[in-house]
Specification:
With 411 residues, the protein is an alpha/beta fold. Helices cover 34% and strands 32% of the residues. It contains 11 helices and 21 strands. α1 runs parallel beside α4 (117-129) and α8 (307-327) runs antiparallel to α9 (335-363).
């Protein structure tokens, strides 16, 4: 029996929130791409698969527009107009000192948009279906990748083969592709669990996101389309386990004790999800004919909502490096080409990951002197306009050496 062989310029292992944007960006640059994902596309877009929403920074939104994703998100993008950061205790309310980000201070664009992950996946799949240079093979799994001197050969679970000049690992934190290549990671567990659910509320949220720091961890209230909000609720593992075991009424009471009444009556709707929280950083991003992007390269705490945006910055940088090399007639899988991508992204990812780690450690406690220091710090930054606007630009992803896609330009 003859094996099916797929020939492409690039193989992407993983067809998720990093893999498919990368495929679209590379295709825009004229490269043919085969993306392979072990998950069934219908399953990962089901409402019960993933209850999370992601804050897409406005630089990332520019890239979505440029690679043809935004047109499939009509009615699903909730603008983030303001962000309020405060500190407090359960049932005692927030400190009078807080930090307020108002998007009008830095331009007309919102600070970003909140999009349900499943709607982002639906939009990405539609964009891929419309792109002739991208082939998505799913559900199927990559069983083995052989890295040769001139190409990679991947063997899939159905016995078919993929030949390409370069392989990208975009297969998440566990990343079998990274592990098989012998790339080690460093990191640690936070002893925290992220609880995710959706609430409906009585009053309009006006596009205001809240980051409310409590002793167990941050309690984020993220505005969704309509009078709804996604809660990303961090607790110590033991407490999270007890909360998740509550019946619906007791669970709703715990939410109200933290949510307050500023949006009127609120009630949880739909299922509850939970995710263990940890930090994981790959020691290397590249090997000959292999590069890591997204969660395969770095998994961070969700405290600042930057996890997906870091991955999308990887995507924009990787696509630019590879497309530029192809235009110059270079070998896109050569180590010296891929090291440019590693130099571009590894320091930024590590610095931001450690900054989020530090914020979590600073705020996830009830130590009196630290509470006073962080409350004063929030209030001080709120009063210093240039510093406050610098933080907003960082949150929007427009600080530093930006790839063309994040500037809204073609790759």
């Amino acid at each position: 029996m003859t094996k099916v062989v797929h020939e492409s310029d690039v193989l992407i292992v993983g067809g998720g929130l990093a893999g498919l944007p990368l495929a679209l960006a590379l295709a825009q640059g004229g490269l043919s791409v085969t993306a392979v994902d072990a998950q069934d596309p219908a399953r990962v877009t089901d409402a019960g698969f993933d209850g999370r929403v992601s804050a897409i920074a406005f630089a990332s939104c520019r890239m979505f527009e440029r690679i043809g994703v935004t047109k499939y998100l009509d009615g699903q993008m909730q603008p983030i107009n303001d962000i309020i950061v405060s500190d407090g205790r359960v049932r005692e309310g927030a400190s009078p000192l807080f930090l307020h980000f108002d998007h009008t201070e830095i331009g007309d664009e919102p600070l970003g948009h909140l999009i349900e992950n499943r709607h982002t996946r639906i939009a990405l799949q539609k964009a891929v279906d419309a792109e002739p240079l991208v082939r998505l093979i799913a559900p199927n799994a990559v069983r083995h990748v052989e890295y040769g001197s001139a190409r990679v050969t991947a063997t899939l679970s159905d016995g078919s083969l993929v030949h390409a000049k370069l392989c990208f690992a975009a297969d998440g934190r566990p990343s079998p592709t990274r592990e098989a290549a012998g790339i080690r990671t460093i990191g640690w567990d936070y002893g925290q669990t992220g609880i995710v659910t959706t609430v409906e509320h009585e009053l309009p949220h006006e596009g205001v996101a809240q980051e409310y720091f409590l002793p167990g961890g941050p309690f984020a209230i993220l505005p969704m389309v309509g009078n709804r909000a996604s809660l990303v609720w961090t607790e110590k593992n033991d407490m999270a386990k007890a909360i998740l075991a509550l019946d619906d009424k007791a669970f709703a009471d715990e939410i109200r004790a933290r949510f307050g009444d500023y949006l009127g009556q609120c009630r949880p709707v739909g299922p509850r999800w939970s995710y263990p929280l940890n930090l994981q950083l790959a020691r290397e991003y590249v090997r000959p004919r292999l590069a890591l992007v997204g969660d395969a390269a770095h998994g961070v705490h969700p405290i600042a909502g930057q996890g997906l945006n870091l991955g999308l910055r990887d995507v924009a940088a990787a696509a630019e490096v590879v497309v530029d090399a192809a235009r110059l007639g270079l070998d896109i899988g050569a180590l010296d080409v891929l090291e440019r991508y590693q130099r571009w992204r590894r320091f930024d990812n590590t610095a931001l990951s450690l900054m989020m780690d530090g914020l979590n450690r600073l705020f996830s406690n009830d130590i009196g002197p630290l509470r006073l220091a962080r409350d004063l710090g929030l209030g001080l930054v709120n009063e210093i306009g240039p510093l406050r606007r610098l933080f907003m630009r960082h949150a929007g992803g427009v600080i530093g050496d930006l790839p063309r896609l994040l500037r809204g330009e073609a790759v």
